[in-house]
Amino acid sequence: MSIREIIAQKDKPFNVKYRVNPTQKELRELALKYIPTCLVSAYGNINRITLRKARMEKFTYIIADESRASEFSSAVMSPERAEKYINLQREFIESKGELIEIQGYYGIGETAVPIQAFYTMEAANVAGMQQVMMFSREEIEGPDWVEKEFKPVFKVVYTPGLELNDLPGKMAILVDLD
Question: Could you name the domain of life of the organism this protein comes from (predicted)?
Fold first, then answer.
């Protein structure tokens, strides 16, 4: 089984400790503990100084056969090449030993899309921001959500501390449509 298949099929695809759906207070504490460039403003807000401010199209790759490049607005990366970077990411994550997992939904009602997002500790501030932007499981599934199995449609794995020296910008956003 390829690493892409493992991530897609397993609930907890990495051999690490998971902090599942921490509170905003806990995420704030994690950000201040693990991110040396996080500062507290005079108003008590967290301000993070960062090299990467947002996802950039020029570093985004769709995992697909190169012959399908004309089908996408972003660059494509072959599945074989992507597997190399996904394995590097897995090794990076497992060397850290811990992940933040946020389970939530984009949208409400029948169109709500379940999302499972994983963040390394140096992205605790991003996890906090994304958690606020998602609808919680309780809001979508109701008060007995903790008893239900979570079945995400999309998984996001965010590792801003991982540098890929042989790629432009030393980073990649890999989009696996399978």
Answer: Bacteria
